[in-house]
Amino acid sequence: MVSCFSIAAANQILRIRCMFMESILKQDIGWFDRNKTGDVASRISGDMSKIQDGLGDKIPILISFISSTILSFASAFYYGWKLSLVILSVSPLLIAGMALLSKNQANASKEELEAYGTAGAMAEEVLSGIRTVAAFGGEKKEIERYDNYLLAARKKGIKRGLMTATGDALTWFCIYGVYGLAFWYGVKLMLEDRSEPDPEYTGGVLVTVLFNIIMGCIYFGQAAPYFEALALARGAAAKVFDIIDRKSFIDSSSESGLRLSSLQGSIKFSNVYFSYPARTSVPVLRGLSLTVSPGETVALVGASGCGKSTVIQLILRFYDADAGSVQLDGHDVKRLNIGWLRDNMGLVGQEPVLFSTTIAENIKLGKRGATDEEVITAAKTANAHSFIEALPLQYNTLVGERGTQLSGGQKQRIAIARALVRNPKILLLDEATSALDTESEAAVQSALDQARLGRTTIIIAHRLSTIKTADKIVVVSDGVVKEVGTHDELMEMKGSYYQLILAQTKESDEEEEKDLSVFETQTDSATVLNESNEGIELQGYSSFRRSIENGFCRAMPAINSKTEIPVVGEQEDAEDEKAEPSKMRLLKISSPEWPYAIIGGLSAMLIGLHLPLIGVIFGEMLGIFSLPTEMIPEKADYICLLFLIISTTAFIFSFLQTFMLSFVGERLTTRLRKMIFTNIITQDIAFFDHPKNSVGSLCSRLTNDASHVQGATGSRIATGLHATSTFAACLVIGFWYNYKMGFVIFAFVPFIVLAFYLEGRVISSHMFVEEAGFEAASKIAIEAIESIRTVASLHEEKTFFIKFQDALLEPHKKSRLKSQIRGIIYGFVQSVQAFAYAAGIYYGCILVANEEIAYSDLMKVLEGVLVGIMMVGETIGFAPDYHKAKVGAIRIFKLLDLKPRIHILSEHGKTLENIEGYIRFEKVRFKYPSRPDVRVLNNLNFEIEPGKTVALVGSSGCGKSTCVQLIERFYDVQQGKVVIDKENVKDMNVADLRSHIGLVSQEPILFSYSIAENIAYGDNTQDMDMNRVISAARQANIHNFITTLPKGYDTPLGERGTQLSGGQKQRVAIARALLRNPKILLLDEATSALDAES
């Protein structure tokens, strides 16, 4: 029974996980705009565990309890239908009450899981943008925000606990009340039949009926915790199946649609109107019409947010136009097969996304089955081959999560290679060279010029050098085409394009003059990082022009075994999973809940005494039938009064045990989640560089470990305490009435303990493998969902689904094996009950025959034995929950024990009231901790005077961004020192240091706040001041755009700011940095996505 259902549950949960992931990857991009990826991640980990819990061995155990209840009542009906009918008269009330509570419980569970999903989404968003959080000192703010989400989840959980407690209390009140009613009415029937020659109700019939009714009620009462597990599973499954059942409007896996035998590459937009699904009130395209001939190169230009990137997304059919049509070779894209459409296009986005695998595998994602030769050719074309060859592992080099181990320019070149390897008919370049240095841009641009021969190419760019060679330039403004022509034609028209170019060339001239002035007067300077990554102070413009080449790259080889980065989920941790969590530490962490836990624990133990007392009362009932008739009613009334007292105390203690322990569980697990999140978010940046510390793995741990601890609280821990006190009372009763019977009972205890121990070993030994597999699967899922636009453009949904499925197969096999062993152990425990009862009856009869024990006393002992061992058997049913909680606690403690080298919340270090802004790098040598074999900075020396502007120039990957990160103290140097105002940054308070610095990075990270809140994120030390926000927005040239939005500054940006264009995002990020009025401003390609006017 247990084995079959557990194996079936393992198969089903694998199928559900795969169906869920498959359905997620099929959804249209508009769906992702409206749903957070972190919420999806929470469903994959936390919700699936609860579904598996409800699908597994608890189902057959619940069925066995219900069937035993039905059989017990059927037997009672057979022997005495009148008595049984009266007893069952309370059943409709109980069933209706339980059904209502079960429904409310499932709803509360669903709401709780949704709240936890929101908290998980927020955690995923924050961990994905951890550098931005660290740069702006947002740790405390994010911890508070996460805590607020947890508070909402906790309230829902407490509500669920209240429903469960009420259901349990009502159940036990009715059960014990039924005992009293059954006995009272049974005695009445028996006395009425005594005068009959052939009485229907004798003492024997009454005992049979009462015994069956008592056992039926006990079985029904024991089913209550299993109903809760089922309600939790139903709540978790509701949202999961909503997503599985959702049919996407734009399904990339669909086989329907036309597949053209040959693609020419003509594109036509006819009067297209469009607004994004998540922001329907803001029109983006307002009747745009555009024609692109086969093989033609068309450049789209215009201000940020005018709709250029939207055009590309409509060609790829990420969205469907609201009105008008988009045609490819004369066919509406809505009629074409989506997979075929995307297979024939190559996209390089403004913010290139790489996946956490090798460089070669990243390029091969552009073309399934690409050969190594094709990969190398594409890399050479994209001017990436030379820097890849310089790496220790070359094309087998891991790029890190989202390509974080590479510089922006290196990432962009690999993304270009990935697009070119598929040799697409249509090439879509959205600011494809914005992150490249001048030399690389020239080489890549030349390669792209060659690559676009014979294929239709659409270019979005702001740089004149990128667009002037296009066959046709289209000026887009306010969602419509304003001008069309070649560069020379548009310049002659002196319209919008002319003004854009004029602004750009004027800016270039001013910058060049400024540079000449700067270098001639030596007021400012440029530091060039050369081949050996040494800083050289330049004093002349001619030197400035002689920039460097071939600097050491930031790419990551295999993780060195000597690295000291703390990681989660290491393979060697399997041994630690067998350890016991510190009991003192558990008690210390749970100390705020002690008063509630004590009340709940005592109530659970007191409720556990009720069943043995019923056994004693049952024995007393048997003695009544041998009394004279006139004495029976008085004795019966006394016993009925005892039942009434027991039913009342059972209601009180049952409610207190379940509610108090559920309350403790909710408070404890939310606090554990907060502690884990706090410790993760305050780790130094090197921690997040390690592949095993991916966002997916960390989110999985954050959700799963706390869920496992929560899974052993509430009614589950109540059941354990309940069973313990019941069993102890049964032993006492056994020894009290006859010590020989007590020893017979005690002889079976070691077998039950042995079974519990063996099951614990089985579960613990396989749990780590399961968790590691689920973490790996979650990592793949989150990575794919976070970068769904890239996955969709590559039409690689199936590839990521297969990787996800493969990650689950190994733990699935282990789960099936565990299920078989667990079934054997559970069967053994259940058989012990029967053997114990049989041995008790056999030996008891011998004692009765020898007159060593009275029959009524024997029944008291046997009833106690049966109930006691049954309760222990029920505890075995929840053994997996206890062992999961134990492993979860160990893993949580290991996470909490991780200590960052650079602690943002530490009070230690010098704080400077006023920083002038003097910076000096003194013989700095640096390697990233995650790749100690690659030296990034080698004896770097340069200094920056207060108030001066210094430009760091050099080829991609030479160490420019590394300097920025060392000033922010994201890392510590291995040799030398970084000095700010004559203080070594290592000696300064980290939070204070970063509070004086403003950072705008190459790929700006925005959060799912409103625009105002994102800008106000620049200063997390005080409440939002709208005057400062608006002032910063004006400086960043974003204010006018914001005021055109229906909600203005209150407009929600969506996840990672997806509701804005690249240029708009970058301007919001600039406003965020300017708001804090920093003494030191660090701009890492801060204007690469901006149009000339901005």
Question: Based on CA inertia axes, which overall geometry fits?
Answer: elongated
The unreliable regions are 507-523, 531-563, 570-577
In total, how many beta strands? 19
Radius of gyration: 36 Å
- The N- to C-terminal Cα distance equals 69 Å
**CATH architecture descriptor name of the domain at 267-504:** 3-Layer(aba) Sandwich
The amount of beta strand, in percent, is 5-15%
Strand order of the largest sheet: 6-7-8-3-9-10
What share of residues is helical?
55-70%
CATH top level class name of the domain at 267-504: Alpha Beta
CATH superfamily of the domain at 267-504: P-loop containing nucleotide triphosphate hydrolases
Rounded mean pLDDT is 76
Protein structure class: alpha/beta
Question: In the CATH scheme, what's the topology name of the domain at 267-504?
Answer: Rossmann fold
> How would you characterize the largest beta sheet?
6 strands, mixed
The total of helices stands at 39
Explain this structure.
Among the domains are: 267-504, 3-Layer(aba) Sandwich (Rossmann fold); 919-1083, Rossmann fold. The strands form 5 sheets. The protein has a 6-stranded mixed β-sheet with strand order 6-7-8-3-9-10. The protein has 1094 residues and is α/β, with parallel strands linked by helices. It holds the Pfam family ABC_tran. The chain crosses the membrane at residues 59-79, 85-102, 162-185, 205-227, 594-618, 638-665, 717-737, 743-760. Residues 1-232, 598-884 form the ABC transmembrane type-1 domain.
Which short descriptors sum up this protein?
1094 residues; alpha/beta; Rossmann fold; four-stranded antiparallel β-sheet; 19 strands; 60% helix; elongated; transmembrane; ABC-type oligopeptide transporter activity; EC 7.6.2.2; ATP binding
